[in-house]
Amino acid sequence: AQTVTQSQPEMSVQEAETVTLSCTYDTSESDYYLFWYKQPPSRQMILVIRQEAYKQQNATENRFSVNFQKAAKSFSLKISDSQLGDAAMYFCAYRSPPTQGAQKLVFGQGTRLTINP
Amino acid sequence: DAGVTQSPTHLIKTRGQQVTLRCSPKSGHDTVSWYQQALGQGPQFIFQYYEEEERQRGNFPDRFSGHQFPNYSSELNVNALLLGDSALYLCASSLGYRANTGELFFGEGSRLTVL
Q: What is the pLDDT of residue B68?
């Protein structure tokens, strides 16, 4: 079974600075998807960024980028120019390839990010 | 375009009771998944419904059951409630059982408290 580990329960960063959230995972599959989701106090999970394992290029979405190290099974999220609205719980998640059918996500324990003004 | 909607947003039950939570998927989506998120933890997969059938199930007892209706909406039922069932229950929808996009759209959840 796949597992996802986030070793940083809490992180804080000054507004406008850069922060990196860590995630490692364990799988025997060669093809899969990795995600970072953000959960603000409103509770709704919002997709931040997605990475397909077969793509060597790291995904980027505006101020958010990932460092995907497939051999090391590491998937970190970098937030540049942090903004107050980035404060939230961040979850790393794994999904098996679509050929396996169901779109079950396996989540890590989460990292609470605080932005200091 | 309405996103995923869940009801009720909050509810309180006592041990041994039964509860039904409801979910309407994002417009155009046909697949619904349910997750349980205990306080301070990441969500855990309960089950997924497509074409009115349960397609995959996580490590949850039979007290957890579900249903999907022809309009793709879904219900999660929990019988014989235990204190440990207190959690945020999230519904997520997507298009296509074997779709490649991998993106799930989540609702804001139903907060269940069992006393």
A: 97
Q: Which of B92, B90, B78 is nearest to B31 (CA)?
A: B92
Most distant CA pair in chain B: distance in Å? Answer: 41
Fold for the domain defined by B5-114: Immunoglobulin-like (2.60.40)
**pLDDT by residue (tens digit) across B4-15?**
999 999 999 999
Q: By three-state DSSP, how is residue B85 classified?
A: helix
E strand segments, chain A:
3-5, 10-14, 19-21, 24-26, 33-39, 46-52, 60-61, 64-69, 74-79, 88-95, 105-107, 111-116
Asked if A33 and B102 come within 8 Å (Cβ–Cβ), the reply is yes
Distance CA B85, CA B38 (A): 8
Which whole number is the average pLDDT over A46-71?
A: 94
Q: Which chain A residues touch B106 with a CB distance below 8 Å?
A: 37, 44-46
Q: Is the pLDDT of residue B64 over 90?
A: yes
Which range marks the domain in which residue A7 is found? 3-116
DSSP single-letter state for residue B72 = S
**Residue A16 pLDDT > 90, yes or no?**
yes
Among the partner residues A91, A101, A109, nearest to B56 by beta-carbon distance: A101
In this complex, how many residue pairs, one in chain A and one in chain B, have their CB atoms less than 8 Å apart? 73
Total number of domains in chain A:
1
